[in-house]
Amino acid sequence: MSERLGVTPAQTVGPYLHIGLRWPDGPYVVPEGTPGAFWIRGRILDGAGEPVVDALVESWQADPDGRFDHPDDPRGARPPALAGFRGFGRSETDGQGWYELLTVKPGPLPDPDGGTEAPHLALSVLGRGLLHRLATRLYFPDEPAANGDDPVLRSVDAARRDTLIASPAPDGLRFDIRLQGDRETVFFAV
Length: 190
Description:
This protein has 190 residues and is mainly β. The protein is built from 3 helices and 11 strands. The chain has helices at residues 17-20, 144-149, 151-154; strands spanning 38-45, 55-60, 88-92, 98-103, 109-110, 116-117, 120-127, 134-139, 167-169, 172-174, 177-178. β7 (120-127) and β8 form a beta hairpin. The protein is globular, with a radius of gyration of 18 Å.
């Protein structure tokens, strides 16, 4: 006797973030005390401007020389010259929707078409109610010329580009991520 099984229904990410993805040293892309290190802090906000308290932000970035210790780097994988640099960070949001990452500024990157991408961090947002991760980028406010030439940033509607540029803060940068609504952060299909 053959029984026909149905399609498994789609499920959202979570609410397991605080159970299965907690990583105590996750926010530290570099160790505390690393020369040039700074904090990136921000809030994850929903469409009504309310904090998202069960979310996770992951970052992936090049080292200060614009290199990755990864086989997909077109110039070849190379361990970072900066001691303790991981290139990856993970921060869960707190009860007010805040996340934080301690990092250093990445260098510019070659793009596949022979140009140059401005220094940036690739960010992923995971959270309750999301069927898939959301992918975005954080660009640096002190790089107006590089940002103006960045092929990915140029592909974004000019009226929305500023949602991808962090703001200066006393101990680093602030980068809020708005999931919907007014001033929604630009997300990329990757």
